[in-house]
Amino acid sequence: MEKVHCLALLLAFSSATSASPVDVQDCTLQPLEQGQGVRVLYSTGRVPSGCVSRAAPEADREVHVLYLQCGDKSGMSQLFLNVSSADGNSTQRRKVVFVVSANGFSLLTIHSEDLPLTFIYNSENIFLNMNTNNGETNTTALPSFASGEELLKWAKLKYGGVSSFASVGSPQRIHFQVGKEIGTSEDCIPETDFDAGQYLEMDVISSEVKSCPHPSKNPRKEAHIVWLQQGHQDSGTQAVELNMNVTCDKGDPFKELSVVLVLKSQHSLLWNIGSTTHSTQFLVSGKYSLKHMSSGKIDGEALPDSKEGLIRKVHDRGVDFIASYTEIPSANRITLEVVRCEESREAATTPQARSHPHSPTREIEGLINLVVPWRCLENTIEVALAKQYLSVLKDPITIMTLSDSRCVAQDNMTHFVLRSGLEDCFTRVESGIHVKNKLIVTLASLQQVTIPFQCDLPEKLSLQLFSTPEFRLPSTTLEFNEVAYVQVSLRTADQDSSLQLQECSLKATGRTSMPLIRNGTSASSSVEILEVPDNSPGTRIHRFRFVYEAKDGGRPSLSATLVCWVSLNRHNPSSFESSLDVKVNDPNSPSHDQGLGIGTVVGITFGAFLIGVLLTAALWYIYSHTRPLAKMQPVSANPPASESSSTNHSIGSTQSTPCSTSSMA
């Protein structure tokens, strides 16, 4: 198969070489327009200016100075800084101090595993977003520095020396390694075109990509020229990895794209070529290898030392469309991202309807996605967007809502703040943990920008008690001397880690704790760990059953607490503990409330009836013996009207009683 592939490549080369040169107009390189579908990314450890020296005067401290040269001083540059340790030991690391300044506005997002970092920066033009548990920030009011050398001088006076200095352009990401001796000189004296690769690597999106516009909407072939212009320091043997990816934003990528790839460099360099299109011709200086073929190193050819000569070389191969021309100062890896769609080739020559990189929409989307102002709590979503991040926007935000326009953020002068329940504002909860909604911001120009977002509910350990092995109806009552079933559930979005049930015990009131699980295994013969069906997304489950028996045949306590502790094995191990209060039901307990039997109910009813009869008889006896005495009292012949009325009423009442009639007779 490889021989067939090699033969196909040779035939392609011979046919292209034998083709007559194409009669084309002179190619005038122009900056690549946004939307023409080509991006060139590369990684390098070489910075415009930098230096290293021995560690700072204090042996347990490193001081690193970074000066950010923003390309667009009127806009907001965005930079990720990943900090890692060379030795991988978090317990014996020195204190690390970063002094950062910039000549424009910059949003700096810091990520580190578990390092004690201190950042000193100017909060007027640098906005810091820390994604580390041990990070500290010191917003020292740094003066405005016109150059990196001035910042370096200030840091030397402040700390008595520095470990490193680097003045960088506008990279997307910096990988910085600390905890290693990187310099031997006594002083850090900046050098131009400095190789900081032993401790720093930058991921850069090239802003120097150019192309030659082509009159045809669907050119037959296209060429991409990459000129890697290393300095004399890189004249030794060096390997560079190169990949070309063809993608499509909407639809399928154009798989049959015919490409001529020109890789210009010094002859001592080795190009390790990975992914490319199926129909790619190579014009390479030096040697190169194809990862999908085991043919070893392939000798290249001598290429012209000017861009005009390189373009002419491509035209001689029968290609009249220069899709991209890029000069890169130094790189370890290079990636060409080409957007070409199957259904339409217009993307190759016509700018697509995309937002400009500095348009309000793209700027706000990037800013908010980097700041990440939202977070999920147990039952709510909270959004708190600091307005200091928005000061660089030319079109300010006036209103911020969720998907439901009735859920409006409050403006408290410093933040846009919004709180919402998980069941409100069109919020969706997927897999029991992933919370999704949209942030809709309205600008002063009345333009609306929609930013979909997702956050995960906090990790939570829950215990449930069941009386049957089906695990259907949870209960809080534990039957004495009966089998009880326990389910231990951890809500987590981390599906790649494993959950280990470490310990469980039953703590009865006034009794010694009863161990159930110890070190992930049964603690006694009355405990059995059960198999668990496949975990649902967002939930990790353990199950076991046990029988609660009192020691020495004694009676159980009427209340107890079930306690479990689990560990989640991942890069940063975590442990969780939860408890469940239960009531203990003992049918044989003297104090056990068994209810009232029918005999008891009948007895109580008859007793109440008898007491009622006796009480009625006693009252009648008293009434019948006291009434005649009252009737023998003299009555006035002419009583007052009110008394007569009262007497008549009394007589009427007496006459209406059968017993009183019999007495009168």
UniProtKB/TrEMBL annotation:
<feature type="compositionally biased region" description="Polar residues">
    <location>
        <begin position="635"/>
        <end position="665"/>
    </location>
</feature>
<keyword id="KW-0732">Signal</keyword>
<feature type="region of interest" description="Disordered">
    <location>
        <begin position="632"/>
        <end position="665"/>
    </location>
</feature>
<keyword id="KW-0812">Transmembrane</keyword>
<feature type="signal peptide">
    <location>
        <begin position="1"/>
        <end position="19"/>
    </location>
</feature>
<dbReference type="Pfam" id="PF26060">
    <property type="entry name" value="TGFBR3_N"/>
</dbReference>
<keyword id="KW-1015">Disulfide bond</keyword>
<dbReference type="InterPro" id="IPR058899">
    <property type="entry name" value="TGFBR3/Endoglin-like_N"/>
</dbReference>
<keyword id="KW-0325">Glycoprotein</keyword>
<protein>
    <submittedName>
        <fullName>Endoglin isoform X2</fullName>
    </submittedName>
</protein>
<keyword id="KW-1003">Cell membrane</keyword>
<feature type="transmembrane region" description="Helical">
    <location>
        <begin position="596"/>
        <end position="623"/>
    </location>
</feature>
<feature type="domain" description="TGFBR3/Endoglin-like N-terminal">
    <location>
        <begin position="218"/>
        <end position="339"/>
    </location>
</feature>
<keyword id="KW-1133">Transmembrane helix</keyword>
<feature type="domain" description="TGFBR3/Endoglin-like N-terminal">
    <location>
        <begin position="44"/>
        <end position="202"/>
    </location>
</feature>
<dbReference type="InterPro" id="IPR042235">
    <property type="entry name" value="ZP-C_dom"/>
</dbReference>
<keyword id="KW-0472">Membrane</keyword>
